[in-house]
Amino acid sequence: MSLTFIIGGARSGKSTYAELKAREYGEKVVYIATAVVTDESMAERVKKHREQRPVSWSTVEMYSDFERLAEYKEFMDNEVVLIDCMTTLIGNYMFDSKINFDTCSPEEVNNLEIKITEEIFSLINVCKANDKKLIMVSNETGLGVVPPYYMGNYFRDISGRINQKITVASDFMYFVLSGIPIKLKHKGEMIKWQEDF
């Protein structure tokens, strides 16, 4: 099992690069799509993503219950798992929680973050248990302005902390900037501060 983490800003080319890595890792790929179509704009984005993927790839649409993946033929029959993307997954969880982020307690947000983190690591664990090559895609949300509303702040903070945890767990990591992938981590390399993370 290996974990490759690909991160970048919106429209940076990270999904395209993740798909190139998936082709490099093997011909048998299952794509886990975390997006939920809520409007015409999202429908168009999903359509474009589908069109750029090889027709031979399997697709599973889900952002939760990853411990059940071993029950999916699409998962078991393929050697490479590509999930795109973690920040969409986080947003879905925040929306589904029905929490009022303008008035909620810090404990409610912390409990939600724990639940999301556990879900993401259940995906990593099921891939490890079934010897899959896992590619995870996420947005870097910490480079822009501070969101002017509570939910945006919580989303940025949760995403940032979860991205750090995925980084520690990853074997390989790339940052994609305007279509250019920059290697940040290679298996066996460890940033000193990560040892106690």
Automatic annotation (TrEMBL):
Q: Output this protein's name.
A: Adenosylcobinamide kinase
Q: Cross-referenced InterPro entries, in alphabetical order?
A: CobU/CobP, P-loop_NTPase
Write out the function statement from the record. Catalyzes ATP-dependent phosphorylation of adenosylcobinamide and addition of GMP to adenosylcobinamide phosphate.
Metal-binding as a keyword of this entry, yes or no, is no
Q: Which reaction does it catalyse?
A: adenosylcob(III)inamide + GTP = adenosylcob(III)inamide phosphate + GDP + H(+); adenosylcob(III)inamide + ATP = adenosylcob(III)inamide phosphate + ADP + H(+); adenosylcob(III)inamide phosphate + GTP + H(+) = adenosylcob(III)inamide-GDP + diphosphate
Family (UniProt): Belongs to the CobU/CobP family.
Q: What's the gene? A: cobU
From the UniProt record, which GO molecular function terms apply? adenosylcobinamide kinase activity; ATP binding; cobinamide phosphate guanylyltransferase activity; GTP binding
Instruction: List ligand-binding residues for GTP.
Output: 8-15, 33-35, 50-53, 61, 84
Task: Report the EC code(s) recorded for this entry.
Answer: 2.7.1.156, 2.7.7.62
One Pfam match, given by its short name, reads CobU
Q: Give the metabolic or biological pathway.
A: Cofactor biosynthesis; adenosylcobalamin biosynthesis; adenosylcobalamin from cob(II)yrinate a,c-diamide: step 6/7; Cofactor biosynthesis; adenosylcobalamin biosynthesis; adenosylcobalamin from cob(II)yrinate a,c-diamide: step 5/7
Q: Where is the active site?
A: 49
Query: What GO terms in the biological process aspect are recorded for it?
Result: cobalamin biosynthetic process
Q: Which UniProt keywords apply?
A: ATP-binding, Cobalamin biosynthesis, GTP-binding, Kinase, Nucleotide-binding, Nucleotidyltransferase, Transferase
Name the SUPFAM superfamilies for this protein: P-loop containing nucleoside triphosphate hydrolases
